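We emphasize that the prediction below concerns an isolated chain of 88 residues; any contacts that depend on oligomerization or on bound cofactors are therefore not represented. The input was used exactly as deposited, without trimming of termini.
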Amino acid sequence: MDQQVADFLDKRTDKATTTTADSDDEDALLEELERGQDDVLDGLREKRLQQLHEELSRERDMKAQNQGVYFETATEKEIMDLTTGVHS
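Result of the prediction step, given as a token string:
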């Protein structure tokens, strides 16, 4: 059971309850759980946005270093120049 639900139920059992109090408690429980879900979703959303930002930054860095770029070569000399770091 979720810790938030367990805590709420513990509070609920400490009180004297009636039929209308049960209904109010259930409404309060649902409202509290919805608020908790919003907090969790906001945290997940923020974490995912950070991951996307890091991924896009990494992609920009890789493009700046010409990673993932294909070159067509016609001669063995061009291949050697590309692989040894000599760019004409």
